[in-house]
Specification:
The complex is a heterodimer.
Chain A lengths: L1 E14 L2 E14 L3 E5 L6 H8 L8 E8 L2 E2 L5 H10 L1 E5 L12 H12 L4 H14 L16 H13 L5 E5 L7 H18 L2 E6 L2 H7 L2 E6 L2 E7 H6 L4 H8 L51 E2 L5 E2 L16
Parallel strand pairs in A: 3-8, 3-9, 6-7, 7-8
Antiparallel strand pairs in A: 1-2, 1-4, 4-5, 9-10, 10-12, 11-12
Chain B lengths: L15 E12 L5 H5 L7 E12 L3 E5 L6 H8 L7 E6 L2 E2 L8 H6 E4 L3 H4 L6 H12 L10 H11 L18 H13 L5 E5 L7 H18 L2 E6 L2 H7 L2 E6 L2 E7 H6 L4 H8 L33 H4 L2 H4 L3 H6 L5 E4 L2 E3 L2 H4 L5
Parallel strand pairs in B: 3-8, 3-9, 6-7, 7-8
Antiparallel strand pairs in B: 1-2, 1-4, 4-5, 9-10, 10-12, 11-12
Classes of the chains: A alpha/beta, B alpha/beta.
The complex binds adenosine-5'-diphosphate (ADP) (2 copies), iron/sulfur cluster (2 copies) and magnesium ion (MG) (2 copies).
One adenosine-5'-diphosphate (ADP) binds next to strand 2 and helix 2 of chain B.
Chain lengths: ~325, ~350
């Protein structure tokens, strides 16, 4: 059963410089016990989707489509209902969240807060629960009495994970949860997230620009470009045999050690991701694409079948309609 | 006498350009604001504690390790941006001067590229002014094929891949993408025709997709102008794509150094192996991850400084093979394992793998 179901999601920020269409028709599905990885360059709309799922975007933002989280129609909820859904149905761990901690409040009190507000439990039980949560994220219970400055970056991120788990949500959205951490600490936090997700049967939407991290944690991958999903499928398959030229370029940024094709030859994508207010016509990737065809600036690819359990929005994939001058 | 030992392949390495020998840098004890309120005193941090590395002409040397192990401090000492507490740094055989004036010529030869291009660029200067700054400090080189400032700025921008250069002259940093900004930083380094570039995590702040292009640019500079590059990185996958040699640092020391193929594919130090274990890999079979926080340079353990976290010690193997006492009690230096491949670990003396 799907915990999160996103249908034809469109999100447009309203600014003095006009509307910013950051998300342009996205479908996503995350099942119980499943990890969906969402990857793409910065600015492609990943955090905007995360924000929409828990309705954390600026009030003026225009959101269309449908988001269903744990049976709740998120876009239709009243403010009161919405508050209940945050933390209990879904919670979010984001990059730099550790800087969002209250510096003068003890760790324990910060973890207890959502439990007291949403968990319908008393002070005593909440404290016990907070202690259990700390142990779950690999920290000793005595840390409850610490202040944030007494913790390292990795420990703070563990606390943020404990807080996200506090009200036993069905979905956790992790938005670049390890990006600012040191390599070794990053690996530790990833390992923790994976273990928790597995043991608790959580649905996890894991967002990052670092595709290599996702191959390790995700079951399925969705690759995003300019506000749209451009490829989707099993994590290993997408990473190892990408169908979309954009995914190919992203995957090439993470060569395996020992792969002689990349020895002395770093490879990357030229150009820059488009400004959401000036999205190129046709396939939005065409100005940077290594496999561009004459049709690409006029045809807008949809997520066509690109193999078993694989979709890709590119004119070259097997499920694309026949087009003049395009080989598949 | 038996057969002569095969000569180490020094010819391939080129002449030494920068030689760092037994470098030490200490930072006076500092305390955080809160700890200060509680009356705690900080102890001195031995950020760099005996680092020796050599950068050869036209080579790319990667300096790798966890955060806090002293990579940036080593890089800053090489740049002459801080005065070492001990050790020497030589440039083409000459020890670095300690005065500002004495360092001037050197500072032109050795240019730095920092991690965060946004912080490195003055937001109120145009790209032209930013790139021309090096020339204004070091002077426009004269000589028979002398060029004007304008020509040199254009050449540097275009070598850094910002073409046509004139299009960028009057732009401000905020009008460029992250990748373009890092190219501007590189152009600012190139404009004075350096022979060495020290790049401290030059792509960590960039999107993974554009990292390759910046790295490819650095490789091109090495090829075309024989610029020697010291690249500081925590990412061994990156080292695989660009580096000829890799030096792995742990807590202020180099613990393994050698050809990239060797160090990255057949690591001989348990710490190198642990760092390789955290390079994400598809279908990653569960590889043991080193636990604990990055180590603290104010409290350097006795013996091998890695011993409190070393899996060989933790698993009991060090004891079984009889090196435990030395691991926990005797400090050790790098030893040559094979020509050009040095390791600081008691395992190698026994011919054991990490
Ligand atoms: N509050 C906002 N107002 C206007 N535009 C925004 C706002 N937040 C994000 N954007 C724009 O929306 C696009 C998507 O941003 P974001 O979702 O943060 O991307 P990602 O998380 O993939 O890096 C970007 O172009 C960004 O500049
Ligand atoms: N200016 C400074 N004052 C005090 N301590 C410093 C200073 N710069 C670095 N350190 C300390 O020295 C150690 C090495 O730091 P650094 O060279 O930046 O490591 P790396 O670049 O490998 O992350 C760290 O413990 C750091 O906290
Ligand atoms: S549709 Fe055309 S431009 Fe778009 S990814 Fe495919 S080949 Fe490239
Ligand atoms: S010397 Fe001993 S403690 Fe140090 S790395 Fe080798 S085995 Fe581990
Ligand atoms: Mg984001
Ligand atoms: Mg550093």
């Amino acid at each position: 059963m799907s915990v999160l179901s996103v249908r034809d999601l469109g999100i447009e920020y309203q600014t003095t410089g006009g509307g910013v269409p950051a998300v342009r028709g996205v479908d996503l599905e995350v099942d119980r016990g499943e990890v969906l990885g969402l990857a793409g360059e910065s600015g492609c709309g990943k955090s905007t989707i995360a924000g929409a799922i828990l309705r954390l975007l600026p009030v003026k933002t225009r959101i269309t489509g449908r988001i269903e989280l744990d049976g709740n129609d998120i876009l239709e909820l009243t403010p009161g209902k919405l508050r209940a859904v945050r933390w209990t149905a879904g919670s979010i761990v984001f990059q730099g969240a550790m800087h969002a901690m209250n510096p003068v409040q003890r760790i324990g009190e910060q973890i207890m807060e959502p439990i007291l507000v949403h968990g319908q439990s008393g002070e005593r039980e909440a404290r016990i629960r907070a202690g259990t949560l700390l142990e779950q994220v690999g920290l000793p219970t005595r840390r409850l009495d610490d202040y944030p400055h007494e913790l390292s970056g990795g420990q703070k991120q563990r606390i943020m994970i404990a807080m996200a788990l506090a009200c036993s949500p069905s979905l956790i959205v992790a938005d670049e949860p390890t990006t600012a951490l040191d390599v070794m600490v990053q690996a530790q936090v990833l390992q923790l997230l994976r273990t928790l997700q597995h043991d608790l049967g959580l649905a996890l939407l894991f967002i990052t620009h670092d595709l290599s991290v996702l191959v390790e944690v995700a079951d399925r991958l969705a690759i995003m470009y300019a506000g749209k999903i451009v490829e989707q499928g099993g994590a290993e398959a997408v990473f190892h045999s990408p169908a979309h030229p954009y995914t190919k370029a992203l995957a090439a940024a993470f060569p395996a050690i020992g792969d002689m094709r990349f020895r002395g030859r770093p490879s990357g994508l030229g150009g820059d991701p488009p400004d959401p207010q000036q999205i190129p016509s046709g396939c939005p990737f065409h100005p940077r694409c290594a496999e561009v065809t004459p049709a690409c600036s006029s045809v807008t690819p949809e997520l066509w079948t690109a193999g078993p359990a694989r979709l890709a929005a590119c004119v070259h994939v097997s499920g694309a309609p026949a087009l003049e001058g395009v080989s598949r | 006498m038996s057969d002569p030992q095969p000569e180490p392949d020094v010819a391939e390495l080129g002449v030494p350009v920068v030689e760092v020998e037994r470098l030490e840098v200490n930072f006076k004890g500092r305390v955080g604001f809160f700890a200060g309120l509680l009356g705690r005193k900080g102890s001195d941090a031995k950020a760099v504690d005996g680092v020796s590395i050599t950068l050869h002409e036209g080579e790319v040397l990667a300096l790798a390790g966890e955060s806090g192990c002293g990579k940036t401090t080593t890089a800053r000492a090489i740049m002459g941006l801080l005065i070492p507490d001990a050790g020497t740094i030589r440039y083409r055989g000459e020890p670095l001067a300690r005065s500002r004036r004495g360092l001037r010529g050197y500072r032109r030869q050795v240019q730095m590229v920092f991690q965060d291009p946004t912080a490195a660029l003055n937001p109120r200067q145009t790209i032209y002014e930013i790139v021309a700054e090096g020339l204004r400090i070091h002077g426009v080189p004269g000589g028979p094929d002398a060029k004007t400032e304008d020509e040199l700025v254009a050449r540097a921008l275009s070598r850094a891949g910002l073409r046509p250069p004139e299009r960028f002259y009057l732009l401000y940093p905020h009008e460029l993408s992250g990748g373009q900004r890092q190219r501007v930083v590189i152009a600012g380094a190139l404009v004075v025709d350096p022979s060495v570039i020290v790049a401290d995590e030059p792509v960590s702040n960039l999107d993974a997709s554009v990292r390759g292009e910046i790295l490819a640019l650095l490789m091109k500079l090495r090829e075309e102008f024989r610029i020697s590059i010291l690249i500081v990185t925590h990412d061994l996958g990156l080292a695989w794509t660009v580096a000829d040699r890799v030096a792995v640092m742990y807590l202020g020391r180099v613990v393994e150094v050698g050809p990239a193929e060797e160090v990255l594919q057949r690591p001989k130090h348990p710490y190198t192996k642990a760092l390789l274990n955290v390079v994400p890999e598809a279908g990653g079979t569960e590889r043991p991850i080193l636990q604990g926080e990055p180590p603290d340079p104010t409290r350097i353990p006795k013996g091998c400084r890695f011993h409190p976290r070393c899996p060989v010690v933790a698993s009991g193997r060090a004891e079984r093979i009889g090196i435990l006492n030395r691991c926990v009690g005797e400090d050790l230096a790098l030893e040559e394992l094979a020509p050009g491949h040095d390791v600081a670990c008691y395992l190698t003396g026994l011919g054991e793998e990490p």
